[in-house]
Amino acid sequence: MSRPTRPPPKIVPEEEPEEDEEEMDEDGFDMEDDEGVDIFEALGSLLATEDGETVATTLVSLKDATEKIAAGVDMQNKILLKILSEMKNSKCACPPPVQPQHIAASA
Question: How far apart are CA 25 and CA 51, in angstroms?
């Protein structure tokens, strides 16, 4: 009895994967993907509070507060100068300060 002969298997060459039309960078991310995260929007959300206060508005309010403090210190200095000049010009009926006396050491 003879064995039936099988036809040899067909060798099908592997198909090379088709290149996508979109360019990929070396990390595999689409370079033309415009729907990604906007960097400025991401930074804006990091540098702003939920109330919408940003670093710039905080700096402006600090500048205003600093100017108010400086005006207060300036007014306080003027008042202190007036007080000191009045004290210097006034004749006080107070006795002069007592000079400390040194006690001689016994020999």
Answer: 38
